[in-house]
Structure to design on (283 residues):
């Protein structure tokens, strides 16, 4: 593992965050997590597009170009020698005396790190159990902000229940939104369902890759429409997606077995196609 802060490579345990960094005090910033396969950044452009959108929504000035961000990614890959890994970066509004309103004349802070990461192929082959829990987050889940307490509490509730991931639903309408750190999908009668893009979910890059690139190429049917926990529990198949998990089958949800309790056929098709795409693009 190796980090980057303020224009230089740093060790991960180096003390670099100022007391009054607004990320530190308010969670006032955004982040991205990207995947490195075979020494190459996978789908970096889509991640950077989302990063810029998050910054715009929070009115944080954009002071890095795509070229600079890409260059820092590759300098970390090179300096660490990590070929299969995970890069995390965050941009905070900057450092200023603690006041809720935006400070004037501050420069956003970028920090980034790389860690090794291997695809969880054994887990992908058998699938995971998911916990069902109310979605207690704010109403701008479309922004990849540093504020993750709702997600953190949901994930821990899942772990306490011996589940891998928490799948959240909004209690007012009884509709599933997404996982605590993933997007959620079901398959019913060969139609793939997932929550539509709005303020209640993050537009996952893995989700976008499936919807825009993979599902059309496999001639499968996608429906972006919200559904209830009860509907999901009666699905034929279910899966979650994220940059680190790729396409991860879900074999039970809220204590109910999904389908025959094994990764579904369509899920496995998507899983293979996604891996193949990553392999092709990161040769
Ligand atoms: N939703 C949430 C809440 C997440 O934290 C993540 C992972 N960052 C995702 C969805 C999946 O996004 P991606 O495919 O871009 O990793």
């Amino acid at each position: 593992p190796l980090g980057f802060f303020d224009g230089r490579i740093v060790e991960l345990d180096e003390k670099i965050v100022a007391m009054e960094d607004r990320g530190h005090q308010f969670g006032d910033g955004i982040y991205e997590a990207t995947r490195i396969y075979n020494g190459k950044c996978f789908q970096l452009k889509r991640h950077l597009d989302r990063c810029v959108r998050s910054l715009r929504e929070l009115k944080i000035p954009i002071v890095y170009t795509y070229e600079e961000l890409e260059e820092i990614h590759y300098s970390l890959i090179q300096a660490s020698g990590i070929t299969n890994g995970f890069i995390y970066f965050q941009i905070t509004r900057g450092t200023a005396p603690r006041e809720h309103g935006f400070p004037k004349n501050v420069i956003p802070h970028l920090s980034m790190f790389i860690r090794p990461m291997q695809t969880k192929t054994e887990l992908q082959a058998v699938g995971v159990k998911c916990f069902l829990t109310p979605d207690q987050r704010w109403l701008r889940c479309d922004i990849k902000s540093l504020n993750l307490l709702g997600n953190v509490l949901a994930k821990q509730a899942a772990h306490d229940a011996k589940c891998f991931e928490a799948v959240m639903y909004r209690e007012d309408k009884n509709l599933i939104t997404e996982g605590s750190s993933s997007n959620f999908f079901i398959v019913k009668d060969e139609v793939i369902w997932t929550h539509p893009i709005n303020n209640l979910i993050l537009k996952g890059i893995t989700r976008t890759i499936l919807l825009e690139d993979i599902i059309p190429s496999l001639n499968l049917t996608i429906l972006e429409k919200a559904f209830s926990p009860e509907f999901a529990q009666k699905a034929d198949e279910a899966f979650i997606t994220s940059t680190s998990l790729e396409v991860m089958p879900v074999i039970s949800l809220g204590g109910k077995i999904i389908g025959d309790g094994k990764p579904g056929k369509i899920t496995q098709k998507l899983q293979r196609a996604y891996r193949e795409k990553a392999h092709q693009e990161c040769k």
Summary: The pocket of 4'-deoxy-4'-aminopyridoxal-5'-phosphate is lined by residues 33, 151, 178, 181-183, 202, 204-207, 241-243 (CB under 6 Å). The radius of gyration is 19 Å. The domain at 2-117 is CATH 3.30.470.10 (D-amino Acid Aminotransferase; Chain A, domain 1).
